[in-house]
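Let's practice the habit of predicting before peeking. Look at the sequence and jot down your guess about where helices and strands might fall. Then scroll down.
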Amino acid sequence: MCDSMIKKVGVRFKNGGKIYDFSCGAFVLNIGDQVIVETEKGLGFGMVETVPAVLDKAEKPVKPLKKVFRKANEKDLAQVEHNHALEREAHAFCLKSIKELGLQMNLFSVESTFDASRLTFFFTADGRVDFRQLVKILVKQFRARIEMRQVGIRNQAKMCGGLGRCGRVFCCSSFMEKFEPVSIRMAKQQGLSLNPTKISGQCGRLMCCLTFENETYRQLKTNFPKIGKMVKTTQGSGKVTRHNVICDRLSVRLEDGREVEISIEDIIKDRR
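Done guessing? Here is the structure:
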């Protein structure tokens, strides 16, 4: 099959994880199908997230796409269950060893490769941790390659999941593939309370959803006078005190002490 006829399919390995493209060859795949694919670390188990599509010349990847090895069978599903049991066992054993060694680290997840030849232990910590002795203990116990990976608090929230203050599953663990920069300026732009408890997620960092509407607010406020600026209105002159960009209105404290809410169209522009 020539490059122009390569069919790609999107596969996700875990909930909220990134979708990777694979060459599906002659396999007929549908969304939700469980497949075994070739990865840099050997075979991997994933789920089809996007329907197969022909890869055109403009989309030709820098590196050849890895292939879908086969559809998952009963033996593969049994292996996945075995891996989950191994991950639970490794997590409990590692926690016990961390306590015995007195290490200052928070282990929160363990992942096994499909063939169970490698175990990756994810943890958070305030600083660097000397886990060399811990790795020796784990290698001796599980007879597998051991990788210790220190990640940030946001990655922990993404991997563990949970419910946000909105009552919905964390955005990072349900559909976000990567984290975007979030700043307190975004909360100010949207007129939100700057109380840390109201604009922070369960991870303790600023909520990722502050980025979702930030650009819309930025564009809507282009024609709004800044808060604190003196303006002339159809009801008199005054100082801008608040914005309501969604309704295209703003609040002005007039010179006589009254505070009124007006439309942006009620501002008299200086024609000089």
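How did you do? Helices lie at 74-101, 132-142, 153-160, 171-174, 184-189, 196-199, 214-220.
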